[in-house]
Design brief:
By secondary structure, the protein is mainly α. It has one domain. Helix content is about 75%, strand content about 0%. The chain contains 13 helices and no strands. The longest helix is centred in the N-terminal third of the chain and has 27 residues.
Length: about 325
């Protein structure tokens, strides 16, 4: 098997595991507040993070070199985590994914003011078409928009902002800073909220929370293997395979069946996102924010793909 097909297979496997993680979030969301799920997700992610950081040989301290950007990225990551967990719990999986797939479009848009990126006519048109796809999914004139829809949109926006900020400061900041600040902020903020929302956790659900940490870490490693085996232009579009898993899991476990609006809107958004990926793949500029943003939504419950790559690369040197 060639390197690109191998990388695509790794990526498809990674996003299948990510989708399984999200299905568990939705299952637990029927019994527990999103705040509580986030709190325990971070708590179970800490052992993995600790092991990674103990082996980090990079010199330096935990003081950020770009404090304002780091603070903004931390706030964005915390809001993303809460919003995306809430959206998965309260919206159909396929509809949530369709809205979240607007993230590459928003990354391209936010790269203009944050990274100084120049977006040409083709990518600008793709952004507009993709946002039309979001409106098709939401159908504001026919459907009563809920807090779940707002949460999914907010997750896409704040995740895009966090991703673009990492592109701006990632080369200067230590991996430990990029990793710990959002996780600690999530843990502390959700911990403060916990007394008001806590519900006793049944043992099977506790196992589900632990399994979430295992799944997302395993998916991250598979995604790293994908990027090592294939080009980003091959790997990046594989994220859209999650809509297939969302449809399958939704039908099997939650009696959810996407309507034609969701299917059409998702197709428009996916086509726009893939077009942007292909345009960046053929770009001669050094700033390609979508292709260089290698992780999916930055939920700040486990290490990002790029942070894991840097830590692993540092350990092997």
């Amino acid at each position: 098997m060639g390197s690109n097909p191998k990388g695509a297979l790794y990526a498809l496997s990674a996003f299948a595991v990510f989708a399984s993680h999200d299905a568990i979030v939705k299952t637990l969301g029927a019994s527990y507040s999103a705040f509580q799920i986030v709190f325990f997700s971070v708590m179970f992610g800490f052992p993995v993070v600790t092991l990674m950081l103990l082996r980090d040989r990079t010199d330096g301290n935990l003081r950020p070199r770009h404090p304002y950007w780091t603070a903004l990225r931390t706030v964005s990551a915390v809001l993303t985590t809460q919003c995306v967990f809430y959206a998965f719990a309260h919206l159909p999986l396929a509809q949530t994914y369709a809205i979240l797939f607007a993230t590459p479009l928003l990354i391209t848009l936010l790269a203009i003011p944050v990274l100084g990126e120049r977006v040409g006519l083709h990518r600008a048109a793709a952004i507009i078409v993709g946002l039309i796809g979001v409106m098709i999914v939401l159908r504001p004139s026919d459907t009563e928009l809920t807090l779940g829809h707002a949460a999914a949109l907010a997750a896409a926006v704040f995740s895009s902002l966090a991703a673009v900020i990492v592109r701006k400061i990632g080369q200067d900041e230590r991996s430990a800073v990029l990793l710990l600040y959002p996780m600690m902020a999530n843990f502390i903020i959700m911990g403060c909220i916990m007394p008001f929302v806590y519900q006793p956790i049944e043992l099977p659900h506790l196992g589900g929370l632990a399994l979430m940490a295992v799944l997302v870490f395993s998916a991250s490693l598979l995604q790293i293997a994908a990027y090592r085996s294939a080009s980003a232009v091959v790997v990046a579009p594989m994220q859209y395979s999650q809509i297939l898993w969302a449809t399958l899991f939704g039908a099997l476990f939650f009696s959810e069946y996407p309507d034609w609006h969701t299917a059409l809107g998702a197709a428009v958004i996916i086509a726009s996102g893939i077009y942007i990926v292909l345009r960046e793949g053929g770009s001669k500029t050094s700033v390609t924010p979508v292709l260089r943003t290698r992780s999916r939504l930055s939920t700040a419950t486990v290490p990002r793909i790029t942070t894991l790559q840097r830590l692993i690369r540092g350990q092997s040197e």
